[in-house]
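Quick start: read one record
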Amino acid sequence: IGGDMIRHHILEGFAERFESNGFDARAFVASYGMAEATLAISFAPLNTGIQTDTIDLRTLEKDGLAKPSNDPSHALRTFVLCGEALPEHEIEVRDPLGNIQPERHVGCVFVRGPSLMCGYFRRPEETEAVLDADGWLNTGDLGYHLNGQIVVTGRAKDLIIINGRNIWPQDLEWSAESEISTLRSRDVAVFSLETETGENIVALVQCRATEEENRNTLRDEVTSLFRRQHGVDVQVILVPPRTLPQTSSGKLTRARAKTMLLSGQFDLQTEPTNSAA
């Protein structure tokens, strides 16, 4: 399992549900991969199941440090360990200056090995931007090392910086999808927009309700949830079902959703008149 950010609670629920049918949770194998590496870069150890690391979310956001915590009074985030680099492959976590980060310090993930691409087909400038002369590929992912394994925290380009906090959009998306019963997986896309007053967070939410009262209720629930659980104000915009863009492999693409919003491709006729304020 490694095609997208791994949601440990979904795997735990699956294992619990099918345990009586003989499913062994140790069968799960987390991995880290990307198309440029055709395909895997790391694999977790076999027969161990999903291994997780629960950290203090506020420390992660403010200091870029994955500090372990199980304090229920703190905001917590659980990540999945994705294993060690495959044979003949290397994984480094670097800071913005290129220095290798110590364990539990978040940085940009770089990889090298015989499975990596030579470049993007007929795109020399894009290739040069991510692949250096020594064969190191800038994956564009953020993560940290723990016990020799790589832990991926998200995409660098999706990171939202508000008042010195590094906010991962998937944290907001998963909160809404897990806490609000009318929402399903990939119903929410969160990103930031630059305005005259600074950077604002926007959440596009697929809404199946047609009654204005129910739509307003959903919008208020999502807004309140983000403020209560994450301490941020978010502009919630409802969009029709099945309109949030996904890649061919089913991944939500926030960049495309942002472009669609700015170019007016979503049907927002039923939005309140002040929704875009």
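The longest helix spans residues 212-230.
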